[in-house]
């Protein structure tokens, strides 16, 4: 076949594509997106079907191993993950060391990095058995790490995970349980989280996944790649948008701004204000994930009896934007982050913790993408080129002559 690397080095041709708008960095069999039609599929299965019918761990299995598990395979996989939820006792000290109020994404990334140090028998990226074990440890540890990042940020005591609880149940209990009282698990909340995590589980070559692949391409250990993914996800233009949306809604509410005035502010480029939770590099149509989440937000918030004020505002914002020339022209629609924050808030999470929930959902996708890349024959280190526009050659000037 065509050796693109050789072609480039011999012809001297370099393509310049800032932000990789038109550049594919890999071939993949994991996730398919048709951004114009608003289609998302994991391994060929429509996201709508998975969100409604599957469990998160079933989807994790699908993403990582390529096929839906049988009941026996799923039971075994669940069991393996559940047995890896307990962290090394000394990791609790790490979480205790962070100041109260530290951002959970920073604490989570530190936790994932540390996990590599506590699992040194799984760092060899060329050993399939170690990669498998590391994948399971990451999946098992992530709910505990995310819950401890939350507990650490509010200065609350940590609980131990329980083998007899499911993935989401464990996560919720670790987050909201206290040593004094048994945490009551609400099956509706569990199902909502299963759905939300499924919707976040993979999204092909977004910024965090590309980061995971790039770090992985250098043969850095899998924990280092995942921690880098957490950092990339934390940005407000990426996963951090879920926190930013809620803060935006609160600000509009606090300032008593009229929705139409706020949208005018967004349209005035000089203001530097963006409509957070809107727009997407790939979707030029309604984000199919946002469509599903919007339905859930509506139902959950109305059932929970909590204040619908922010939801009403979000709905009005969407309606106003979707009928505005600025947004129509640019094909800007709500993305996955537009409605998630409202649900997370109704469930009791502070806005600062929202992006950690995204990370928890995205982990299987990162693992699947890392493994797909590592299974590739003739894999190359990621190393983009540049177009140099700096000074031409000049002579060094001694410091006293400058
Ligand atoms: N509010 C106002 N204007 C916007 C928005 C927005 N949210 N998003 C894009 N635009 C405008 C841009 O200013 C630009 O206008 P111009 O052509 O007049 O210069 C045009 O729409 C195209 O936008 P780009 O920024 O070029 O699109 P890009 O693909 O580079 O960015 C991104 C995509 C980062 C998601 C962008 O839409 C954005 O910043 N949205 C808000 C943050 C957000 O919600 N991020 C979450 C994304 S989903 C996820 O990561 C899970």
Automatic annotation (TrEMBL):
Please cite one Gene Ontology biological process associated with this protein: tricarboxylic acid cycle
Q: Where is the active site?
A: 280, 337
This chain's protein is named Citrate synthase
**InterPro entries recorded:** Citrate_synth-like_lrg_a-sub, Citrate_synth-like_sm_a-sub, Citrate_synthase, Citrate_synthase_AS, Citrate_synthase_bac-typ, Citrate_synthase_sf, Citrate_synthase_typ-I
Q: What is the species listed in this Swiss-Prot or TrEMBL entry?
A: Tessaracoccus aquimaris
The protein's matches in NCBIfam families, at most eight in alphabetical order, are given as: cit_synth_I, PRK05614.1
Task: Report the GO molecular function annotations.
Answer: citrate synthase activity
Q: Which residues form a coiled coil?
A: none
Task: State the reactions this protein catalyses.
Answer: oxaloacetate + acetyl-CoA + H2O = citrate + CoA + H(+)
Print the keywords alphabetically.
Transferase, Tricarboxylic acid cycle
Family to which the UniProt record says this protein belongs: Belongs to the citrate synthase family.
Per the record, the domain of life is Bacteria
Annotated Gene Ontology cellular component terms: cytoplasm
Pathway listed: Carbohydrate metabolism; tricarboxylic acid cycle; isocitrate from oxaloacetate: step 1/2
